[in-house]
Design brief:
This protein has helices spanning 67-71, 75-81, 127-142, 157-168, 189-199, 211-216, 238-242, 244-254, 270-288, and strands at residues 7-14, 17-25, 32-39, 52-58, 84-88, 145-154, 175-179, 227-232, 258-263. By secondary structure, it is of the alpha/beta class.
């Protein structure tokens, strides 16, 4: 799958680098998938010595591979640090599963960054395998990105994805952060709906995708240099869906360093994300750069 060709859909000059949008035939998903990449100037000089570290961003419900790149204002800071940015789509597209477009919080645009085990979702809704086993090798082969120096971040559903994948695949990611993540999906309506549909009604299987449960199960501190999370206190989803206090408690129990910043007046959207994006890029640059 590493030799799968990439189709360049568009390219735009951006802060001395380039913003690109790609499509490719995904083996893991079984359908075409799109992703976006920002490459800073340092990555465009050519040669293996110019490979740059990368930060993968996982977007939230209803979003796609364009949302982060057009709304977050991250390219300015990535250019300053010399980091590549990678933003995949949030689910399979075109699977034609009955009911996949009936709800905004399940199906298309709502893959929850896991591999579904229940038919008919299990054929194409395989975002965990796609990201960890297919997309990262593709980046290493086709783009000047050093995938041995990768961080991961995300927002809301994507914050869940960033935290859970970082805890499940620690060798893949050196750093992790999140904006308003769904911290305990087994304990909130969004997660319960998605997990029941994708994984089945046996809730004992859900913990493998729950960041609080995954953190509690760690035998060693997984990220000794710390995890950064920002949460707006005017976020209408905070009380019912996000539960950052549960992750905070799980981190405290195993002595995982966590910087959980709560911001009065900020809501769930990209005005909030863009306000604190510079801090997240600096957090990852500290872990990824020499």
């Amino acid at each position: 799958m590493q030799n799968t060709p990439l189709t360049l859909l568009s390219e735009h000059a951006c802060f001395g680098g380039v913003q690109r949008f790609y499509q490719h035939a995904s083996t893991a998903i079984g359908l075409p998938m799109k992703f976006s990449v920002f490459l800073p100037a340092q990555a465009l000089a050519g040669g293996a010595q110019h490979r740059v570290p990368g930060l993968m961003y996982l977007a939230g419900l209803t979003c796609n591979e364009e949302t982060f790149m057009t709304k977050a204002g991250a390219q300015r800071y990535a250019a300053q640090h010399g980091l590549a940015l990678i933003a995949p789509d949030t689910s399979a597209r075109g699977a034609q599963v009955p009911g996949e477009t009936d709800s905004w919080d399940f199906g298309v645009g709502a893959g929850f960054y896991l591999d579904a085990t229940q038919a008919p979702w299990s054929q194409h809704y395989r975002m965990e395998s796609y990201l960890t086993q297919e997309l990262l090798p593709l980046l290493a082969v086709h783009l000047p990105i050093d995938t041995a120096r990768m961080g991961i971040t995300g927002h809301s559903m994507g914050g869940h994805g960033a935290l859970s994948l970082a805890l499940k695949h620690p060798g893949l990611f050196r750093s992790v952060s999140a904006f308003a993540p769904i911290c305990a999906p087994t304990q909130c309506p969004w997660g319960q709906k998605a997990f029941a549909g994708y994984l089945g009604v046996d809730a004992s299987t859900w913990a493998a995708h729950d960041s609080v449960a995954l953190m509690a199960a760690q035998s060693v501190v997984p990220y000794p240099d710390g995890i950064l999370i920002d949460q707006g206190l005017a976020d209408k989803f905070l009380e019912d869906q996000l539960n950052p206090h549960l992750l905070e408690a799980a981190c405290e129990r195993i002595h995982q360093p966590l910087t959980l910043r709560r911001h009065a007046g900020y809501d769930h959207g990209y005005y909030f994300i863009s306000t604190f994006m510079a801090d997240h890029l600096a957090h990852h640059a500290a872990a990824l750069l020499p």
